[in-house]
Amino acid sequence: MDQTRSPHLMKPEDFLQQLHPTPTQKCTIGCPILDRLLNGGIPCNSITELVAESGCGKTQISLQLLLSAQLPTSLGGLSGSSLYLFSESPFPIRRLVQLSSAFPTLNNPLEKILTHPLHSAHHLFDVLSELDSLLLSGEFSSDPPIKLLVIDSIAALFRYEFENNARDLKQRSGLFFRISSKLKEQARRFGLAVVVINQVVDVVDSSDGLRIGNWTYLYSSERKVCAALGLSWANCVNTRLFLTRHEERIGQEVIGDDHCVRTQTRRFIRVAFAPHLPDSYCEFVISREKVFGLER
User: Fold this and answer.
1) Which of 41, 85, 88 is nearest to 269 (CA)?
2) Which of 15, 29, 59, 232 qualifies as a cystine partner to 34, CB 3.0-4.6 A?
3) pTM of the predicted structure, to 2 decimals
4) Distances (CA, A) of 35 to 123, 181, 278, 295
């Protein structure tokens, strides 16, 4: 009988390694309460999506991640640089400088953040393809190496490039999968934490709405909303975090003949779906210095 071991047979140590895989590295958000919600922070090797209407804080959290990624791994960071690809307004450098004051141990943090504008979804794919070769060859001028990639925002890139007809929708879905496949490949190969910002659309009729993750829709600013780009894009991301905001009445005051209602804005971050997280949420605050969560 031939005793030669087949190359397809698993060794006992290989089986044990599958039972106890290496823990996924995560990047702290810069707040222990928010990190606790996410079981340690934003995971590497996958795509995390932040979904929200304007003014909820998705860009604020992304900017804080650009700084926290530079922290040493002993403090929950990635000891790395970041690449921020933006498609809408100019890069918010002044706000980033404000947030950097909460990270006094970082030395010249702005030098470890690379930015690049995006003009279309096809342009994004071209940039990712170029980035792939640069990271692989080690030619990218970044020290320390890039460990966080942020795209702000994916919805804006597709908004005006495709029409609402069968032909364009098919092309759009194909580009979704090409972009997400490239992002997932780079995340796994280079150990990147990938964060993609998405926007919302109003839900007109939710009676037959398709459930994606824990929720078919959520309320934000008294509007019933869901993530933009539909089911095809939802299948492209690993984790979806939904940010909402609500105006809460806290009293009123009389100014002359007018009765003015005083309100405060409350913001929440909720796990819409994730393979490693339960359905949970947390209230958070955006201050001048940082973004931080509140204990329940």
Assistant:
1) 41
2) 29
3) 0.87
4) 33, 27, 14, 12
